[in-house]
Every structure is written in C-alpha cells, then in structure tokens.
Design brief:
242 residues; alpha/beta; TIM Barrel; eight-stranded parallel beta barrel; 11 helices; 36% helix; isomerase
C-alpha cells in the first residue's frame, strides 16, 4: 500500500508556527512565510498540503482564511481546518480553493450535522479529525484546539463516522504532537482494526523516514509532516521517495 506524504503548515497570526502537545503557550515561530514554504513543498513534488488555522481552532472562526486562500494557489491540493463550526464556514473554505475541509471540534460535538454535510457535498470533500489523548484507559477527544475535554471517545466516534459514509480520518496522538518521538503505532494499528474502511492519516511525532515506513505498515494511508520538515530532519523529496 502506498502512503500519501502530506506536509503541514500550522498558522497563528498569519505566521508559520508549531505547538508542543497542542499547548498554545509552547509555540515555536518559524521565519519562513507561509506562501514561500508552500511553494517549496510544491516544487518538491507534494500533491497535498495540510493547513491548520490554530487561531480559528481555539476561537471558532476562520481567522487565517486569506492566508489559506493564498496557499490553495501554490499548486497542491489543500486540506484545511481550524474554526469550522457552521455550514457557512465550509462554503468559505471551498470558495477559498480548499479541496478538503478538516472537521475537528464540530465532528466531535455534532456528528449528526457533519453526517449531513458528508451527504450534501460528498465524503471526498472532508477529513474527519479525531485527535486524541489516552487517559483513564480510553482514547479521549479534546476539542477547541485541544483545550476542552469532551465525553465522546475515539472508539465511539470513529466507527460511527465509518458507518455514516466518511472516507478520510485524521488522527493525532496529542501527546506525541511536536515532540519528535515517533508515531504511536499502536494507535494506528487499533484504528486499522476498528475502522479498516477509512483512509487514516497519521500525525504527531514523526522524526525520521523510518517513521513513515512503520506508519504505512501499521495501516496508515497518509502521514502528516510538520516539525521534522521545518527543522530539516529530512527533506520532503526523501520523504516522498520513501
């Protein structure tokens, strides 16, 4: 099985940043402009770009929409999210050139509404983001930029979305995010067992090309690359060749 290598750009205040474990107080800013970084990734041969509006994820609005619109013109297909709460937000992202809208908090809090969007626009237009943290023996699902705890669990919602027609699932182990500690392979093996019909994107902790290979072996269909690329752990060209 081939795995889609997807570089990521996280936005805060229009700038490229990374957070550690989703903590807004632990932010690293990078000097590169978002458009320049996207152009570099496009030249390397990436087909997809993953964009997160961190301001929007926490506040519930599309705070970086103008930047996302510019990134959608870089030559790659873009999946973007952060702050999508209503159908109008979906339309605005589509109008901005986004190929797939990433649904996080709304997918956790209001799955019935998201299921209606899947029916209305098609499953290929959305990525369901169920970012998770293992606590008290369950995979919990924090929302609002990972700042608020919810009662639904990953094992409850992932099969629910598979049953209701979702196609793409992005799942980040929050404890690994930005830590360069490698993917949580047990998490992706678990998802391959409970939702084999979903194309799972692995995210959080990639540090080497071997992590990409092992994620594929664990059943992931895509891998999101963030900090490792920004800090030159390896090149995007090598990751795509991998």
């Amino acid at each position: 099985m081939n795995v889609e290598v997807i570089p990521a750009i996280d936005l805060r205040g229009g700038q490229v940043v990374r957070l550690r474990q989703g903590d807004y107080a632990q932010e690293t800013q990078y000097a590169c402009a978002p458009q320049e970084l996207a152009a570099r990734y496009a030249r390397a041969g990436a087909r997809w770009l993953h964009v997160v509006d961190l301001d929007g994820a926490r506040a519930g609005d599309l705070a970086n929409l103008s930047v996302i619109s510019a990134l959608a013109k870089a030559g790659m297909q873009v999946q973007a999210g952060g702050g999508v709460r209503a159908q109008d937000d979906v339309h605005r992202l589509f109008d901005a050139g986004v190929s797939r809208v990433v649904l996080g908090s709304v997918a956790i809090r209001d799955p019935e509404r998201v299921a209606r969007w899947l029916d209305a626009y098609g499953a290929e237009r959305f990525t369901i983001a169920l970012d998770t943290r293992y606590r008290d023996g369950v995979w919990s699902l924090p929302s609002a930029g990972w700042t608020e705890e919810e009662t639904r669990t990953l094992d409850e919602l992932a099969p629910w979305y598979a049953h209701h027609g979702a196609r793409h699932l992005l799942c980040t182990d929050i404890e690994r995010d930005g830590m360069l500690a490698g993917f949580n392979l047990a998490l992706y093996c678990h998802l391959a067992q409970i939702v084999p019909q979903l194309a799972v994107q692995a995210s959080g902790g990639v540090r080497s090309l071997d992590d990409i290979r092992t994620a594929r072996e664990a059943g992931a269909h895509g891998v999101i690359l963030g900090r490792a690329l920004l800090e030159g752990r390896f090149t995007l060209e090598d990751a795509l060749a991998c």
